[in-house]
Design brief:
The complex is a heterodimer of chains A (402) and B (228).
Chain A: H1 3-16, H2 18-54, E1 60-65, H3 75-78, H4 88-94, E2 100-115, E3 118-127, H5 131-134, E4 139-142, E5 156-159, H6 161-168, E6 177-180, E7 183-191, E8 196-197, E9 200-201, E10 205-209, H7 210-217, E11 224-229, H8 235-249, E12 256-260, H9 261-304, H10 306-314, H11 319-355, H12 365-381, H13 384-391, H14 395-400
Parallel strand pairs in A: 3-10, 5-7
Antiparallel strand pairs in A: 1-11, 1-12, 2-3, 2-6, 2-11, 4-7, 5-10, 6-7, 8-9
Helix pairs in contact in A: 1-11, 2-9, 2-11, 2-12, 9-12, 9-13, 11-12, 11-13
Chain B: E1 2-13, E2 16-28, E3 33-37, H1 44-51, E4 59-64, E5 67-68, H2 74-84, E6 85-88, H3 100-111, H4 115-128, H5 144-156, E7 162-166, H6 174-189, E8 193-198, H7 201-204, E9 209-214, E10 217-223
Parallel strand pairs in B: 3-8, 3-9, 6-7, 7-8
Antiparallel strand pairs in B: 1-2, 1-4, 4-5, 9-10
Helix pairs in contact in B: 3-4, 3-5, 5-6
Classes of the chains: A alpha+beta (402), B alpha/beta (228).
Chain lengths: 402, 228
Amino acid sequence: MNLGDTLLFASGSLRGARTRTLLMMLAMSIGVAAVVVLTALGEGARRYVVGQFSSLGSNLVIVLPGRSETAGVNPGMLLGQTSRDLVLDDAQALLRSPAIRRIAPLTIGAAQASHGSLNREVVVMGTTANMLEIRHMDMGQGRFLPQADPRLASPVCVLGATIKQELFGAKPAVGAWLRLGDRRYRVIGVLAEQGETMGMNSDELVIIPVASAHMLFNSQSLFRILIEAKNRDMIEPAKHDAEQILKQQHGGELDVTVITQDAVLATFDRILRALTLAVGGIAAISLSVAGVLIMNVMLIAVAQRTREIGLLKALGAPPAQIRRLFFAEAALLSVVGSIVGLILGEIGSFVIGQIYPVLPVGAPWWAVLAAFGTALGTGILFSVWPARRASRLDPVAALARR
Amino acid sequence: MIEFSDVSRIFKVGDQQVAALRNVSLELGAGEYVSIMGPSGSGKSTLLNLIGLLDRPTSGIYRLDDQDVTTLDDAQQARVRREKIGFVFQFFHLVPRLSAATNIELPLILAGVPVEERRERVTQLLQSYGLADRADHRPEQLSGGQRQRVAIARATIMHPPVLLADEPTGNLDQTTGKEVMNLLEQLVEQGVALILVTHDPNLGGRASRQLHMVDGKIVSDSLGQAST
């Protein structure tokens, strides 16, 4: 009996028992759809987080003031003294490292911004021209902060898209004056709209040169220093160099924390991937439940078709062929059920994608493949026992009964 | 061609042993028309099942065409069954969801015969059995006589040298029963060995050789009047 005839015969007997076939296919497709939808969700969450991180900039190393020690006591704590501030000189010193392409110092503060009769509280970011490239920001109008000595406190500012809209409306903002606290700044550019990334909304920012920010807030300290390494391989050397240079700058004491974005990203990536696998695994359990159902129904089918099996044996079908017929039935069920399940899953993912547009929902190819494989595998695996039972049926007993 | 030497078949019923066949020795030639008669429980069906390789003897040797078939495994026996033995049952045993043509085609499908050849042989057989206009009917749409004719067509499509019939008319009325017997006897004339199990002496009497069984033994082996 060749493969085509086997499949034809099997599909014939599946069509012969319509309700049974439909129920088994339903169980199979729900299982497959669950795997597809759940992994699509998990993968969507992972891609969302990774996307958020990479929109922060690539090859990024971040310097934070202060250091949390896990062992021992910081001498500064005994003296009631906090760690040394990060200052602009520290940032400039970092450029000595060959692993570092560019840096951007960062100061953050809040100020009252007003233009004409409109005013609102805004987050003011003091930085340098390099910030644009390091953070992958895009300009909407005008230009970003000029390349100049970071110590130069020029009275210019760049607005986030929302701030521009709220304070200027449809009027041109570039060239106009904006009052921040008790100082005036000329607007030289407006950022393109880019939405929120990692809890920071650049649309609601006003960016001024770092020295201007120091004057505005009357402080010399930096909130962060963003470092861009020359390339991916230089991230670790850049981190090491940054620690060494800042230790030197701070009188031999390492009182800053240097983190690489990659490390953070990799951790998130691992956590979310594990989550996806776990969720997918739970869904796979529902697939194996479908498998048990198939086994149960197959056993009933063997009992119902005793006569037919006995007849096939009398007509000269060897036991292996009887087994193949039942495997073919299970395989057909699984394949059709899986295809229906995949379609259902894709529809489900699409609907979720429509409801939560920020999530890049989509089942990864390996999950689709795995769902299909698991469905086929469980289908055939759970038909082994029924098929064996059928092939061992005594034809005399099977044919004696009416 | 069929040679039983000292064959016994013992069934276990609970902890009792029941001998359905006791030390039967028998020789049947090619093309012979043999009837096996006897009361129910005499072992005639068991003998038929053993000849048809549906069952294995507890002891003794069964040779088919000078080949010891008792030592073959299930798959090999299935092959012998497919090529050398055709079955006709009392209850027809047609597959209900398949058409008459496909039911007849079944042994060819199992044997892996190519489609074109299958079609040709089935069409030919349907015609010679007067079933051409019933080819696409399912068994439930056929009369008893037609069903049995389909079953006989199925049994003969592989051209087996031996045809085993277990009460082939047991489920048919007189007239159709006679038709079916004529059909089977035509096959005998074409050289097929027919082994007929029945409890009906009139039917069994038509065979050229008649075996009577009682309690698992052959009590008489007589050449009756040649049936014509």
